[in-house]
Amino acid sequence: MSDDAARRVFDVVDTFDPDEFVKLLAEDATLRFGNAAPNKGREAIAAGLRGFFSTIGGLRHRIVRTWETGADVVAETEVTYTRLDGGETGVVAVSIWTVGDDGLITDYRVFVDLAPLYAPQGSVVTT
């Protein structure tokens, strides 16, 4: 199986531009990040991402593996976050999304533990 669908999504996520990311989404899409409340609709999702992105200096994804079944994509990734202090922290994440008939994402969920990202410097191993 090819990682092409996931690569296209993560290439946009890694631009660190919420306005570009929401172009991948249906107007009424839902995004749930970790255990946070879901955001619904492009505007709410972009605002939520802007809030999260203001707490980090950047991010990049390395795809470990993907699965596609019908309209659903599951991607296991290693994500390297750049902290605001310039340090980097790596975590494992799983993202699951559903694509509508028009090719736009209707539901996007990210499962990740961000505790290492926000832990005081020196208390976790950083990459």
Automatic annotation (TrEMBL):
<dbReference type="InterPro" id="IPR032710">
    <property type="entry name" value="NTF2-like_dom_sf"/>
</dbReference>
<protein>
    <submittedName>
        <fullName>Nuclear transport factor 2 family protein</fullName>
    </submittedName>
</protein>
<feature type="domain" description="SnoaL-like">
    <location>
        <begin position="6"/>
        <end position="107"/>
    </location>
</feature>
<dbReference type="Pfam" id="PF12680">
    <property type="entry name" value="SnoaL_2"/>
</dbReference>
<dbReference type="InterPro" id="IPR037401">
    <property type="entry name" value="SnoaL-like"/>
</dbReference>
